[in-house]
Design a protein that fits this description.
67% helix; mainly alpha; 559 residues
Length: 559
């Protein structure tokens, strides 16, 4: 697996003469279509991402506001010294979906992450909707981070460096325009266009600089630790409900770990390295979040912690000005790696869709995709205030998580007369309704919780276990296997819906409209223009493998 030869992949074929001949026999494709597909593949890099690179992408795309903002906010407003318990609870919740990603990423090492899994398990329309949700995670959230970085740069220049207001007025021209967000978006786009190796090195470097910065902040907090600040561990004004509310907020600090799945087609030994990278990412991130939370509340009493700038203000309160300045500068220096990872990931998603014929072939060229994503990100980051759209983006990401969990259940359980699909639809509907009742009505919502539990048990009893995708494609001893399917994926789905229910109705409404637009675009273009390289429907039961490549025997699609 060190060169990628012999690995199977939905998007990185080695188109030798034998395979081209077999494709022609089964597809009877026109020469033009074959040339387009071949040219698209010529633009792709080989498998070159090591386990270290994958972990760097996962950690770099995840650690951000969770350390620098959420710790202070949760400690001050929700959980006090028990903030670390909130992180433990949310970490367990993230692991439920993380297990599903770990298994699917190793078994389907394809660019596109949740899109690829939904494409195989659920069909084209669910996959198309999932791709739109992932675009929120990669493109729009990257734009939001770029805009947040622009605001932090201006604040840092004003507070730490005392730059003149005349100069700062250039960086804050008003009308919602953010020049620094524009700058960081352009620079990261140019870096990605410069080359794969260069952007990979920059990602690795700044990710681990960020990790060392977090370690510095945490160790500094423990050096200044005052045990009296940990009492009471659970403040009476917050109680257990505050810890739970803090876990809801802290869960969003875990979003981004799934970024490694989108570069699966470039991973060396993906069956081993992708699941490992997800698990290692979640372990590293959870440990850092918990340790940082304990050090922050130990360094400063929770009522005095700044909800916007926890660590810098805590260092200042202990008269360690140089540490406060280093922490603030480090945050400004390392946050752009999240923007870089977003612009690296989004073209891979577009490529996967182009490869399946759901969007124009032009996106199958990685440079075209990077340029398109970079231009959109720059425009959004420069001109769109994201404060009103945060819940919209978060809800979309959680929907993508839920679809991934559904995909694993479909691939691991046999469907007799479409029973599994009906039960999953009922489970999702009942879970969403129950969670909305719990969030907006109160304790009466607990009356409805037995329904999704009953449906999950019925899936387990009435839908027999099957080998992955009802095929002999995968040996169970070779891959990471999620335990207790369907209970773990179903619990992950329920947690995701519970988190969605905590968001604003405006954000949820925006998501419904956005998904509706995706459906319209699918029927207007995707379902009409797709190539025969994709599945016509969910027919995973006829997936097989040949020479390390996934084959769809029903349509004889060799990818």
């Amino acid at each position: 697996g060190d060169t990628g030869e012999g690995e199977f992949s939905l998007e990185y074929p080695n188109d030798d003469d034998d395979d081209q001949a077999e494709e022609e026999d089964h597809h009877n494709q026109h020469q033009l279509q074959q040339n387009q597909t071949h040219n698209m593949h010529d633009s792709l890099p080989s498998r070159h991402l090591s386990l270290f690179d994958l972990v760097s992408i996962g950690v770099g795309g995840t650690i951000g506001s969770g350390i620098f903002v959420l710790n202070g906010l949760i400690a001050h407003s929700y959980a006090g010294p028990a903030t670390f318990i909130s992180w433990i609870v949310s970490g367990i919740a993230a692991l439920l979906s993380g297990c599903c990603y770990a298994e699917l990423s190793g078994r389907i090492p394809s660019a596109g992450s949740s899109y690829a899994y939904a494409f195989v398990a659920l069909g084209e329309l669910p996959a198309f909707i999932t791709a739109f949700m992932l675009t929120l995670e990669f493109l729009l959230s990257g734009s939001a981070v770029a805009r947040s970085w622009g605001d932090k740069v201006v604040e840092w220049l004003r507070v730490e460096l005392s730059v003149s207001e005349e100069f700062l007025s250039i960086l804050e021209p008003g009308y919602g325009i953010n020049p620094m967000a524009c700058l960081v978006s352009i620079v990261t786009t140019l870096l990605v266009l410069w080359g794969v190796k260069e952007s990979k090195l920059v990602t690795d470097f700044f990710t681990w600089i960020k990790v060392f910065l977090v370690i510095f902040m945490t160790v500094g907090g423990f050096i200044l630790f005052n045990p009296a600040n940990m009492t009471p561990l659970v403040p009476p004004e917050f109680g257990a409900a505050g810890i739970l509310r803090g876990s809801v907020s802290s869960f969003f600090g875990y979003l981004g770990f799934d970024a490694v799945c989108c570069v699966a087609g470039e991973a060396i030994n993906p069956e081993r390295n992708l699941p490992l990278s997800i698990v290692i990412t979640l372990c590293i991130v959870t440990f850092l979040y918990i340790a940082a939370a304990i050090s922050l509340v130990g360094m400063q009493y929770y009522t005095d912690i700044s909800p916007e700038s926890g660590f810098p203000e805590a260092f200042k309160s202990n008269n360690v000005e140089w540490a406060a300045q280093l922490t603030a500068a480090g945050e400004v220096a390392t946050l752009p790696v999240v923007v870089l990872i977003s612009i690296i990931i989004q073209p891979r998603l577009q490529f996967a869709m182009a490869n399946d014929g759901l969007i124009p072939q032009w996106f199958g060229n990685m440079r075209n995709g990077a340029l398109f994503a970079g231009v959109l990100m720059t425009l959004f980051a420069t001109f769109v205030p994201f404060s009103a759209l945060d819940d919209f983006v978060s809800a979309g990401i959680l929907v993508a998580f839920t679809i991934t969990n559904c995909s694993l259940v479909v691939m691991r359980r046999e469907s007799l007369n479409h029973r599994l699909e009906k039960l999953l639809a009922l489970f999702n509907a009942s879970s969403f309704f129950t969670c909305m009742m719990l969030s907006h009505v109160g304790h009466i919502g607990w009356i409805f919780t037995p329904l999704p539990i009953y449906i999950a048990c019925k899936i387990s009893r009435t839908c027999p276990r099957t080998s992955f995708g009802n095929t002999q494609l995968y040996r169970h001893d070779k891959f990471f296997t999620t335990p207790m399917v369907p209970y773990v994926p179903c619990l992950g789905m329920f947690v995701n819906y519970f988190l969605i229910a905590q968001l604003s109705m405006f954000g949820i409404g925006c998501l419904v409209i956005y998904a509706s637009v995706a459906v319209v675009l699918y029927f207007a273009y995707g379902s009409c223009k797709k190539t025969t390289r994709g599945w016509d429907d969910r027919q995973y039961s006829q997936v097989d493998v040949k020479d390390g490549r996934i084959i769809h025997t029903a349509n004889a699609v060799i990818t």
